[in-house]
Design brief:
Layout: E1 4-8, E2 29-32, E3 36-39, E4 44-51, E5 57-68, E6 74-78, E7 83-85, E8 88-91, E9 96-102, E10 112-121, E11 140-148, E12 156-163, E13 166-173, E14 179-187, E15 193-195, E16 200-204, E17 209-214, E18 228-235, E19 238-245
Parallel strand pairs: 3-11
Antiparallel strand pairs: 1-6, 2-4, 4-9, 5-6, 5-8, 5-10, 7-9, 10-11, 12-13, 13-17, 14-15, 14-16, 14-18, 18-19
């Protein structure tokens, strides 16, 4: 795996992230699918971008190897193991464009290889009629790309504790496949549910550890060491359930 020019980008764990550079104008795009899943023997996949706006949009496309830190920060490294074609496009108003993500060489996959495809909207050329209306805006979409061995599985081990900064649920993925955590909730000893937010909470990549945090007052009564609680979430269509004894870090 070639690594050069380390790039650390603080992207959120959602499927798309907005990178505001201006409040002026951003294209209305539809992207399908919102991620690429390849088997270990597949070479390429594709994504279609539809511009539903009345103006053309210029896009830059780049792909990076993806790993993550315990605090949820994503680390993106340059790679030669995946390519995106073409690397820059113009999508006319009302039109669509299909891009291709490919492996130059199909090699065996041990577990899973993970990447992020960044689709950046480039600023429109200056229009003299808009001078003085503010700086421009760029919309960034960050899409996951996975190449997975069919035998690879996620294996999550959970730890829960509370301190002055909040209630923390830490997932250690001892498997070789990512877990996509959705609707993470704790059922506390008082019977009150504690939600870490509806929808996508984030990914826990194979071999990685990630901590999810909710406000300290979200639990109502503070969690105490030794409390027995239950955890529930979804990993795509799979149920995630765990019985946990609250500890302290």
């Amino acid at each position: 795996m070639t690594r050069s020019s380390l790039i650390s980008l603080a992207l959120t764990a959602c499927l798309t992230s907005l990178m505001p550079v201006s409040p002026a104008w951003a294209a209305k795009l539809r992207i399908s699918p919102i991620g690429i899943h390849l088997t270990a023997t597949e070479r390429a996949g594709s994504i279609t971008i539809v511009n539903t706006d009345e103006r053309p949009v210029n896009l830059q496309l780049r792909i990076y190897e993806w790993s993550e830190h315990e605090d949820g920060q994503e680390q993106l490294d340059k790679t030669d193991d995946m390519i995106v074609s073409p690397p820059a496009i113009t999508v006319p108003a009302g039109a669509s464009y299909t891009i291709r993500i490919a492996r130059p060489v199909v090699t065996p996959v041990n577990g899973e290889q993970t990447y992020r495809l960044l689709i950046d909207e480039l600023p429109q050329p200056d229009d003299p009629r808009t001078i003085g209306q503010g700086i421009k805006m760029v919309l960034r979409n960050s899409l996951p790309v996975f190449i997975t061995d069919a035998k690879a599985m996620a294996d999550l081990k959970w730890t829960v504790w509370q301190d002055e900064t909040g209630v923390h649920a830490q997932a250690q993925n001892q498997g070789k496949r990512h877990a996509k955590i959705v609707n993470l909730t704790l059922q506390t000893a008082s019977g009150r549910p504690l939600s870490f937010g509806g929808g996508l909470n984030g990914y826990v990549l194979g071999g990685a550890t990630r901590t999810f945090t909710a406000p300290a007052n979200a639990a109502g009564a503070p969690l105490r060491d030794g409390d027995r609680i239950s955890l529930a979430a979804k990993d795509d269509a799979l149920d995630v359930k765990a019985a946990i004894v609250v500890g302290r870090r």
